[in-house]
Design goal:
heterodimer; A: mainly alpha; 2 domains; B: alpha+beta; Immunoglobulin-like; five-stranded mixed sheet; four-stranded mixed sheet; 27% helix; elongated
Chain lengths: 459, 154
């Protein structure tokens, strides 16, 4: 396949040494675990006013902004490397935190059901959280229960199953980080696939005397896309051939990799797009009645909201996209089944979806980010003033420029998506002109979505 | 990008610059709008205000339940609204576009999302963004038709 330019960062000796250090990951996990526990404690014991509570501000504004605006587009699954949620479970399995303990992992060694070896659970988990998101985002106690529930689920699954089953198949956040990592500028890959083929002991999977086998259940030797690589760097530590690279690469390099495309991921792309649109309307729109429905103020109204939310995510947007794929097939006179085109073209939604989320996040992160400065000094809202910033006033950042920023971002996302759609279509078409004709309906779909984003933000 | 590609895309770039930068006239004669705006957990009534560029907006602000605030993006207006005490503010809507007004005093769970909208017509920023989007999409399709990228096999 056509391999775009790569730059291997492990050429820098200091970075290679750092990535191979057993201390790196646990040290970062301990830091994030400290903040995670603080978020849970402040959620349970702190003020119920969300904008004065560390658990709300640092999880749903600071962490979220860092994740969607910086980490995912540029570093892919780097968050998964430092995420505290699987840490206690993994340490229990290994009976160690830093050093490598030889022997098998301590679990009941159940087998994860083969029909769940996909991201459908993550899709439904994300949607289940999404329909309660207004409540989770604004009520510290509920937010704390969700965070605690995730860490307990992570521990529970690590008792039953080996390795990171929670991260790979269950974590509702991991699903979209994995999909959007297809666009990121960082990847872990083997330097020379032939070396892996010839290497019989497969230490990256089996582990060695001083390292574990891949906790993400991946064989790096045939990994061609970053969706499921948690960047834990265990393969870098275990490879005796020094055949693992940490590459810088162009944006979107994995979107054209056909191997691994699937309906669950296609749905994830549609769900993420739908949620970005719906959140923009519900949380940032002027419609108070919609916020009150989403806020569970009346059960029947919330039921209606949840039904509508799920219908848009699971039926309406996928239905419209199915029609788009069918139109593309007809326009290009392709023999490829519509379902295949539906799945493959769905990867062209990834750049626009990611940018849509970034545009949505800019709106509330920049406007409400200043709460973080006050909350740092008074995480529980009990009147502490640890760093002298407790009374820092709410100061919206760049509200004047938001419309321009969002327009520019959405245009970049649209162009990126249209080009990706063409290149995916070209994989099915015999000629350039056939691919171009097939791209027209998809470009229409993408342009319409961009216009809806623009209407919600500027119209 | 070689010279041929740049020349081919030049009309789209020129059109995009025209769409974004061309000066546009203000149409209607300015009038004064006197509006009562009520803040209530967690919305404003009316939720959307529509005026024309150059109009004077005279707002009487009420808080129906708890203490709220009124902050208008881009105009830099910020005031506190106490229940039972109405506040008056007046400004000239000299910037076209959509601007969110928000509660600026912590008023409960959904406070960060207590938002209304001031639409100053003609909403040229939105119209320009739509125009730019259409030009960009057309430009991308033209580019792909004229200079198809190298295929990546399945």
């Amino acid at each position: 396949m056509n391999q775009p330019a790569r730059f291997d960062l492990t050429r820098f000796g200091w970075l290679r040494a750092l990535l191979k250090s057993r201390l790196l990951q646990p040290a970062m996990m301990l830091v994030t675990l400290f903040f995670f526990v603080l978020a849970i404690l402040t959620g349970f014991a702190g003020t119920p006013a969300g904008n004065r509570n560390f658990g709300i501000i640092f999880v749903w504004i600071v962490w979220w902004a860092l994740l969607i605006i910086v980490l995912v587009p540029f570093f892919g699954r780097l968050w998964c490397m430092v995420c505290p949620i699987p840490a206690p479970g993994e340490w229990l399995q290994r009976r160690a935190i830093v050093r490598h303990k030889p022997g098998r992992l301590r679990t009941l060694r159940w087998r994860w059901p083969s029909r769940l070896r996909n991201i459908w659970l993550q899709n439904f988990g994300f949607l289940a959280m999404a329909i309660f998101s207004t409540v989770i985002l604004t009520r510290p106690g509920v937010s704390a229960w969700v965070l605690l529930g995730m860490i307990l689920l992570g521990v529970g699954l690590s008792v039953l199953y080996e390795n990171r089953v929670f991260c790979r198949y269950v974590c509702p956040v991991g699903g979209f980080i994995g999909l959007y990592s297809l666009t990121s500028t960082l990847e872990l890959r083997v330097k020379d696939a032939q070396i892996c083929k010839d290497h019989t002991t497969k230490d990256c999977v089996a582990g060695t005397a001083c390292s574990y086998g891949c906790p993400w259940l991946i064989y790096p030797g045939n990994m061609t896309r970053s969706t499921h690589c948690g960047m834990c760097t265990e393969c870098l530590k275990s490879c005796p051939k020094d055949n693992i690279a940490l590459n810088l690469r162009p944006f979107g390099a994995d979107l054209l990799v056909a191997k691994g495309r699937s309906l669950d991921e296609a749905y994830k792309a549609l769900i993420m797009l739908a949620c970005a649109l719906l959140y923009s309307a519900v949380l940032l729109g002027p419609w108070g009645w919609l916020k009150s429905w989403a806020n569970l103020e009346s059960l029947p109204a919330w039921g209606l909201y949840a039904a509508g939310f799920l219908a848009v995510n699971l039926l309406i947007l996928p239905g419209l996209f199915w029609l788009t794929a069918a139109a593309s097939r007809a326009a290009a006179r392709l023999q490829t089944p519509v379902k295949r085109l539906f799945i493959d073209y769905a990867y062209s939604l990834v750049p626009l979806g990611l940018i849509g989320w970034i545009a949505f996040s800019f709106s509330f992160v920049f406007v409400n980010g200043s709460y973080a400065i006050a909350v740092l000094s008074d995480p529980f809202g009990w009147g502490w003033n640890l760093f002298g910033t407790r009374d820092f006033p709410w100061t919206p950042f760049l509200p004047d420029l938001m419309a321009f920023l969002q327009t520019g971002l959405l245009l970049v996302g649209l162009l990126f998506s249209i080009v990706t759609a063409y290149r995916i279509g070209r994989q099915h078409a015999a000629t350039d002109s056939q691919a171009w004709r097939g791209t027209l309906p998809v470009a229409g779909f993408l342009t319409s979505l961009t216009l809806v984003f623009l209407w919600l933000n500027l119209g | 990008m070689n010279r041929q590609k740049l020349v081919s895309l030049a009309p789209f770039v020129a059109l995009a610059l025209l769409v974004w930068f061309v000066p546009l006239p203000v149409s209607a004669a300015p009038v004064t709008h006197t509006i009562t705006l009520t803040a209530d957990q967690f919305s404003f009534d009316p939720p959307v205000l529509r005026v024309n560029q150059g109009d004077t907006v005279r707002l009487t602000l009420h808080a129906a339940d708890v203490v709220h605030g009124f902050y208008l993006d881009a105009y830099g207006l910020n005031t506190r609204i106490e229940p039972g005490l109405s506040q008056q503010i007046e400004f000239v809507a000299d910037q076209p576009g959509k601007f969110r007004y928000r509660c600026s005093v912590s008023c409960g769970g959904l406070h960060p999302f207590m938002i209304g909208e001031l639409v100053v017509n003609p909403n040229w920023p939105f119209a320009r963004a739509v125009g730019l989007t259409l030009v960009a999409a057309a430009g991308a399709l033209f580019y792909l038709w004229r200079f198809p990228p190298r295929p990546v096999p399945l």
